[in-house]
Each structure stands twice: as C-alpha cells, then as structure tokens.
From TrEMBL:
<dbReference type="InterPro" id="IPR003838">
    <property type="entry name" value="ABC3_permease_C"/>
</dbReference>
<feature type="transmembrane region" description="Helical">
    <location>
        <begin position="279"/>
        <end position="300"/>
    </location>
</feature>
<keyword id="KW-1133">Transmembrane helix</keyword>
<keyword id="KW-0812">Transmembrane</keyword>
<feature type="transmembrane region" description="Helical">
    <location>
        <begin position="60"/>
        <end position="80"/>
    </location>
</feature>
<feature type="transmembrane region" description="Helical">
    <location>
        <begin position="225"/>
        <end position="247"/>
    </location>
</feature>
<keyword id="KW-1003">Cell membrane</keyword>
<dbReference type="InterPro" id="IPR052536">
    <property type="entry name" value="ABC-4_Integral_Memb_Prot"/>
</dbReference>
<keyword id="KW-0472">Membrane</keyword>
<feature type="transmembrane region" description="Helical">
    <location>
        <begin position="151"/>
        <end position="174"/>
    </location>
</feature>
<protein>
    <submittedName>
        <fullName>ABC transporter permease YxdM</fullName>
    </submittedName>
</protein>
<comment type="similarity">
    <text>Belongs to the ABC-4 integral membrane protein family.</text>
</comment>
<feature type="transmembrane region" description="Helical">
    <location>
        <begin position="18"/>
        <end position="40"/>
    </location>
</feature>
<feature type="domain" description="ABC3 transporter permease C-terminal">
    <location>
        <begin position="63"/>
        <end position="176"/>
    </location>
</feature>
<keyword id="KW-0813">Transport</keyword>
<feature type="transmembrane region" description="Helical">
    <location>
        <begin position="560"/>
        <end position="579"/>
    </location>
</feature>
<dbReference type="Pfam" id="PF02687">
    <property type="entry name" value="FtsX"/>
</dbReference>
Length: 622
C-alpha cells in the first residue's frame, strides 16, 4: 500500500466524519463558483447597474472566501481532535513528523479536490437557474449560458490553495501535543462548569438594558451604538455564563430535575453549552444581522417604489437659479442623444413651508387647474380654505400622514396666519416632494408666501433604460452641492435606489446568509460527532441500569433541539427589537417581510435539525 493509498483509505473509512465537511465545503465552492460565473458574465461588461452589481458580487466573493477559510480551519481542527488517539498510535509505531504532515496534507487535499470538483459540477448544473433567478431579482435581461474559464480557474486555484495552506497550519495543533495527550484524546474527565453569578447577571442586565432602550423609542445619536454594544456583550455573557447558571439552577429544582429523563439532558446540556458558548455567540449575532438586513431589504423593496410618479424626470428650478436654461438644454440633449422621444411640461409652483410641531416641512403648492391639466386629477372644486395633499413617493411609505390643518409660514419662516384644512390625502404625483393643491384664487393669493419656482416634467417610454443618463445628469446638476438652486429627480434613478439596489443587496445577502447557515449547522454537526464515542459509552452505561431506547431518543432530541434553536431564538429576539425601531420611525409594513424572512430561515434550520437528529440517533442506536 502506498502512502497516498493509505491517506485515501483513511478518508473513505471515516465517511461519517468527513461527510458533513465535504458537503459544506462543496456547497461553499458551489456558491463561490456560481457568483464568479455571474460576476464574469459577458452581459455585465457595460451599464451603470451592471457595474454596481459587479462590485457587489466581488465583495460577496471575498466574504465567501474569507468565511470558507475560517470554516475549513475550524472543521479540520475538529477532525484532528477527534483523531487524536489515531495520531498518538501512529507516532508510537514510528511515524515521523514529516510523514504525519504528509498524511494530513494528503487527506485534506483529497477532500479538497473532491469538494472543488463537486462544487464546480453543481455550479454548472444550477447555473441556469441561478442566472434566471438573479436576472429576475435584479430585473435584467435573461442571461445566457457561457463557458466560464476565468471563474473556473479562480475557483479551482483559490480553493486548492486554501485547503493546502490550512493543512499546513492545522498540523501545528497536532505537533504541539505530546504522545500521551494524543493517546488520551477526549477521554479526559471534564469538570462541571461553574459560571460566575456576577457575570451571569451582568449579561442579562446588558440585554435588558439594550432592549429597554429600544422599547423607549426615539433611538438617535449615539444610542444605536450603545444598544449594539450592550447587545453584543450581553449575548456573549448570556451564552458563556447566564445560560449555564440557569441550567445549574434547574438542577437545584429537584422536583423538575429528578423527574424522568430530565436528569440526563440537563446534565449533558450544561457541558454542551459551555463547549459551544463561543459558537452560539457567533451564530446568534451573525444570524441576527442576516435576519435584520434581509428583513429590512425585503421590507424596503416591498414598500418603496418609483412607478407612482407622473413624470420620468423632474426638474425644479427656483426663482434665483442662474443655470436653469443650461440644465434644461443638457437634459434635452441627453434624452435626444440616447434616442428618447419625450414630452415636457412646465408647471408654476410655490415652494412653501408649514408648521408641524417643531418641524417646518416643505411642500409644493399648485393650483387646482394645473393639477387637472398636467396630472389629470379631478378635485371636484375646492373651497377657499381647503387643500388636497399629495405626498411624495417616499412619504407614502410611512405611517405619519398629512396634518388635518396646514399652518403656512411666510418666506422669513414666521407664521403667516394663513391656514388650510386638508380635505383629502391622495396618491403621490411626483417624487421630488409633497404637493398641496388649492383652488386657483387661493393659489394666486398665497403663492407669495413661498419661493416662486418652475417644475419641469419629462415623460417618455422605456424609462428604466435611462439610468446611466439619469445619474450623469444628477451629478452635473448638483455638482459639489454648493450654492444649488434646483432639484432633480429621475424615475430610473429612484427605481435603482429603491428597488434594484436593495434587490441586488437582497440577492447577495440571501446567498451569503445561506452559506453561513449551512456552515453554522455543520459546526454543530462536527461537535456532536466529535463527542459521539463518549456519548455512546455514557448511554450504554445508562442502558445497563434501565434507560430505554425511547428515553434515550427523547433526551437526545431535547438536547439537539436546544443546541440548534437556542441561538436561533436569541437571534430572532435581537431582530425583533432591531426592527421595532423601524416601526417607531413610521415604517408601516415590517411584520410581513420579517415573518417571511425568519420563517424561511427557520424552515431551513428545521430540515437540517431533522437530518442531523436522524443520523445521530442512528449512530447512537448502533
């Protein structure tokens, strides 16, 4: 038998231990490769959105690769710990440190090559689906298949180098141990964890303090940072100290602890929570970030839109704007040059402000006849002191509505004494700002309260194709944002900011979150099967004194459920309190997207839990 054959047989004989590592590594390679195929697709060479998508995908590639590095490092270290006895015996039989290095390197490279091959093959199989879903979410044209030589080379070389370097690094864990320590393996008697009561209460106090600040509302200034700091510190001490302290308290509750199988799973869980405290901390924090980010993006994507604006481009010029004609000629030139046939309207408006508590929001005042002429909205006659309120396309996403009465200010910002009762609140007309419509006589009388301005509206078809020129015009009109006398808004730019960019972030974030969840569940799998032999011996001893297979199964199920869903529940609590700030700030539709997001992750976690439970019980029953 050659040395390479010996390494290969070691891998094939430890299928149970290597299977989760292989599948998770292959999944990481698959995601990296499909993202690389998307990143280097010929269709993404040009276009403003495509350039942003490439930057986002590049950032995602680096995140996946760095996470894969940490994941493989942890996994290999877990395997080495589970094989300490084997390495100790080999050293006693005369294997040299150089040969041991070669053995570990060969085994990891075998798994690495197999993972890379499986991931790339899976990437080719699912690439069409990935392209279709990506193009749909990002609202791009259909992406055809192509031969991704560049993506193939980067994926293969990058992950081969990753597996090789980590193989050399992890050998240090073995070489630092003596033969006696290796032979003992995991047989050392563990002392029962003794948490600090002070640190346990400190962790709970930090979480309660952070949650309390959120419930208080009006989270501004340095408060978000303080809440984040309290939550992170509290979560760490909750897992490392408070949770163990609570379990030890349960052990003192004799009527509960000595009932049935409780004595088994509570005792075992104390050790498992202590061993996995850091892992649970990382899982819960990153899961909370994934839940919150995905929920916010889903909510933002579902509530914010640009299609409600009546014009594809809006340009507002104030009375003292010296560049009005220059800007208008530039807009006309860009639209004509890029083949857009457009219609241009000019509407006289008054830029006024009204008193609302301590704030003085701006609003465009327009005559009733102009609203009917340019926006085709019939108001059925307004009285002298009445107005119809049209919020901006951004304002309609908030709970707060227009006040029942508008107390108008003069140009100096002082109360003018003029009041308008809001007869009705209708759908938005434009994106730049809110509009109030008054009858023609009232408009002529009150327009001097504000700055006289001209609103230019451009209407044309295929507005989504004007993103590039919209961004160019916006940069030119606003310049360095100094001494600006105009406002500009394009439907394509608004749609990009509110729909396409969140969609891109959601698309990337979802896949990164899925990679993380697979890795996190795999970490738990590794820890469970590392201690499998020890658990077998313990349950075998308990079976001799009367523990039934059914009781053993129930005890294992309770422990696994807590291990899998305890960090998940804490992450959900963090997410609920994080998104509560959005509800306080006025966002109306938080519950729907959040429920879908958490529900999807929960279903994924549940399926993984059932698979691991089935495999673990099968091994235990043997």
């Amino acid at each position: 038998m050659t040395f390479l054959q010996f390494a290969y047989k070691n891998v094939t004989r430890n299928k149970r231990a290597y299977l989760a590592f292989f599948l998770s590594s292959a999944f990481s390679v698959l995601i990296f490769f499909t993202f690389a195929m998307f990143l280097f697709h010929p269709a993404l060479k040009e276009g403003y959105l495509n350039n942003i998508a490439k930057k986002g995908l590049t950032a995602a590639e680096w995140m996946i690769f760095v996470f894969s590095f940490l994941f493989v490092l942890y996994s290999v270290n877990a395997f080495l710990k589970s094989r300490n006895k084997e390495f100790g015996i080999l050293l006693m039989q005369g294997i040299t440190p150089v040969q041991l290095r070669k053995l570990i390197t060969a085994e990891n490279m075998i798994i690495g090559v197999m993972s890379i091959a499986a991931g790339i093959i899976g990437g080719f199989i699912f690439s069409k689906t990935f392209f279709t879903v990506g193009a749909y979410i990002l609202e791009m044209d259909a992406l055809p298949l192509y031969m991704p030589w560049k993506a193939l080379g980067i994926t293969a070389c990058g992950f081969l180098l990753l597996f090789f370097l980590l193989s050399q690094f992890t050998i240090l864990f073995v070489r630092s141990n003596t033969v006696i320590k290796l032979i003992k393996g995991t047989d050392k008697v563990k002392q029962e964890p003794k948490p600090s009561v002070l640190l346990s209460l400190f962790g709970i106090a930090c979480l309660c303090g952070g949650y309390g600040m959120v419930l208080k509302g009006n989270v501004h200034g340095a408060e978000p940072f303080i809440i984040l700091l309290l939550t992170v510190i509290g979560t760490y001490f909750f897992f490392s100290q408070s949770s163990i302290w609570i379990l030890r308290a349960l052990k003192k509750w004799k009527t509960f602890y000595l009932r049935g199988k409780n004595v088994i799973w509570v005792s075992d869980l104390v050790y498992r929570l202590k061993d996995n405290a850091r892992l649970f901390f990382i899982v819960s924090i990153i899961s909370a970030v994934a839940f919150t980010a995905t929920g916010v993006l889903a909510m933002y994507k579902s509530t914010v839109g640009a299609e409600e604006s009546a014009y594809e481009m809006e340009y507002l010029s104030y009375s003292n704007n010296p560049k009005e004609q220059t800007h208008l000629k530039k807009i006309d030139h860009e639209l004509k040059t890029h083949g857009f046939t457009y219609k241009k309207d000019k509407i006289d408006v008054s830029y006024v402000r009204y008193q609302e508590g301590e704030t003085v929001p701006p609003v465009y005042m327009i005559s009733e006849s102009d609203v009917s002429k340019y926006f085709h909205v019939k108001l059925n006659g307004l009285k002298h002191d009445e107005a119809v309120f049209f919020p901006g396309t951004y304002d309609r996403n908030f709970k707060n509505k227009a006040p029942n009465q508008l107390k108008l200010l003069n140009q100096k910002g002082k109360p003018s004494g003029q009041k308008l009762s809001v007869k009705e609140v209708k759908k938005p007309l434009i994106s730049l700002n809110a509009i109030i419509a008054v009858n023609d006589q009232t408009f002529d009388q009150l327009k001097s309260l504000g700055d006289k301005a001209s609103l230019y509206g451009y209407s044309y078809d295929h507005w989504k194709d004007s993103l590039g020129i919209s961004q160019s015009l916006k940069n030119e009109i606003y310049g360095n944002y100094i001494d600006v006398h105009s406002d500009f808004m394009a439907k394509a730019g608004t749609y990009y900011d509110t729909v396409q960019l969140p969609s891109l972030s959601l698309f990337i974030g979802l896949f990164i979150a899925i990679v993380f969840f697979v890795a996190a569940a795999s970490f738990l799998y590794f820890r469970l099967f590392t201690d499998l032999e020890e658990d077998r011996e313990r349950y075998r001893s308990l079976a001799k004194i009367g523990l039934s297979e059914r009781e053993m199964s129930q005890s294992v199920t309770i422990q696994l459920a807590i291990l899998f869903f305890f960090p998940f529940v804490i992450a959900v609590m963090h997410t609920l309190f994080a998104l509560r700030t959005l509800a306080v700030e006025g966002y109306s539709d938080v519950a729907g997207p959040l429920s879908l997001t958490i529900g999807g992750f929960f279903l994924f976690q549940l399926l993984f839990f059932l698979a691991v439970r089935s495999s673990y019980l099968k091994k235990m029953n043997k």
